[in-house]
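Hi D.,

Good news: the full-assembly prediction came through. Inputs first.
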Amino acid sequence: MASSINGNGFITTTVDELLSWGRRNALWPVTIGLACCAIEMMHAAASRFDIDRLGMIFRASPRQADVLIVAGTVVNKVAPMLKLIWDQMPEPKWCISMGGCASAGGPFPTYSTLQGVDRIIPVDVYIPGCPPTPQGLIFGLLELQRKIREKKVTRYEKAFEEFKKDLSPELLSGIGV
Amino acid sequence: MPWASKDTLERIKHSFRQINIDIQPHFVCINVEDTKDITNILKHLKDVEDFRYFIDFHVIDFPKEKDRFLGQYILVNPYTFERLAVKVWFKNNKLPTAKEIFAGAKWAEREAYDMFGVEFEGHEDVKRMFMWEDYKYFPLRKDFPLGGIPEQKLPSLTEVLEGNTMPPSHDYDIMHTYVPTIKEIEKTEKSRITKRGQLVLNWGPLHPGTHGTMWFLFDLEGEHIIQTDVILGQLHRGMEKIAENIHYFQFLPYTDRMDYLSAVCNELSYVQAVEKLANIEVPLKARYIRTMFAELQRINSHLLWLGTGALDLGALTVFLYAFREREKIMDIIEGNAGFRLTSAFLRIGGVHYDLAKGTLEVAKYFVKDFYSKLKEYHGLLTRNRIWLKRTKDVGVITQEDVYQYGLTGPVARGSGVAYDMRKIDPYAAYDLVDFDIPVGDIGDVYDRYLVRMEEMYQSARIVEQCIEALEKMPENEPYVNKKHPAVIPPKEDVFNDLEDMVKSFRIVVHGENMPKGEVYSSGENPRGELGFYIYSIGKSSPYRLRIRSCSFYNLSVFPKVIEKHTISDAVALLGSIDPVVGETDR
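Then the structure:
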């Protein structure tokens, strides 16, 4: 944190810094397993790797989560449902594409497979591998943390801009924007 | 003797004059000439000849023939373990349904309709099995391309949001096959069940309890389920279509990704089928290595079932304990194959690498330790009062269900059917090791739990015997039969020997043509009988490769068993059937 501690034990920092610090250290992924990668995702959460150490707890409801780990092959049939889950997650949110299939179709250039999940969901971090090892997934999550630290929460601001468009000028002056 | 004997065939021929008998080394079938007779013949085979165990039904497409589609049943006599295939041509794309004779045919016919567009007279419930209701094509027909038909523009959103990068983030085609809308998916859902009760509850497709992406529809009266249907296809990747388009050896890594929990067992079933087709002998050392890894993988797979099955019923501790052992097995596999989960360790004609240094010591230590760990699991669950209440007398599957629906593996053995390919038709080194098949009594969830626990113990025993045998073998014993023209030589020879390099180059680029013929061969997976049917026309890739999936048929009994039970039992039952979506959908 770009901050300083003065003699009285206070920390001075910016609100942005504080928010991003809080967000990146409590990333809660949605529990969704699509294919083989889901097993490695489970391994990352289980005994040996234990990503709880990084403040990550799998949540079963998309409403409580802020990271979507797309673990496995996304086929055309499941794509709209996955998109629905992404839409149900509250902002700010991030997406990790785990493995070759989710990133670009992988070894399945077939009639039924979506060629990369970035066709329907904007992806923040791509993790290569078929499937990536749990170490690989943890590396990807750390990269996401770095991205949040460096880039701040841009998509959140965009959403706020969109929100402001719908409001009347009187209301905007009322809330001091 | 896994195939029907001459006596049986003669008896059948005697009853029905209008059939031809076709005997091949690894395939015996009867050709039914007139489509109308098929119902009678199936009934006769079931009631008189005792071929009452339904194994598979699939379709082969011959676009140039008059009748185009050929249907094929595979049946087994559960008393003598004879296997028999029945072939029949579709008349005007139609075949009388077999779902009254074999209940398992219901789903198989749905799948045939979905993939080939063939119809079944008398089957009013033919729906799309894997694709959605408005999907226009029939993908497994020979005139449909592997990549599908691009219909819509679907740009990468990363590029749309962040702008194009130079160089481009990845090389991709902006045109994409049709992706359905949520409305079309809802239409598929509505077409499955006509509501009779108070409420239709969706379970899945993206629910942690459904072991992947299965989608259950429960029609509920209070808490009791009065009817149910399962929507599959949320992981349908087109495996069978891929197999028709690539060389035999290239399909091996795809088998890993089918039932991703038991990669080595899948590979073993597949390479076995190809070896039978090409008549390849496998060296003894490779057979032992295969057996050892298949059994380690079986323990690995059953541990995941134990962990998640208990987790579904609320016992988190078991999950963490089971994954502790899984990590150890995965380390052994990674040390030899270089990959943890989808190992691609076996090769046609042998195994990819010789055993890594120290494998046997590690495996020996693991097995020694595993017996005590198994006791720990028993201590956690076997006499746990909550566990007993949730599993005893829940989800009872009868022997008749097993035959009717074609259930295999621990699900069949839990109901008292001792059907295990390792004993019936021993492959790899299973005829050289000593082990028992545990069999259940009532066929409830608890029985299946005990069967799987005992199977882990037996697997550990097999691994011990394999280690013993491998330790006695001299170090430079061959682990791949590289003399056969269809076998890719091991990597170390490729780099040191010109002849082997040329051979490897030739096979990798052009593939090796296999002899003409048909093979159906199956292996015992942790989930049941995984069969591969290969129809070869003498090319380097199969004309048709059918995967007889154990999870698919095991799951097909679910709607019947869960009727009149509660939702909480559905979780326990699904956990005990233990399907893997990668294999049900392929």
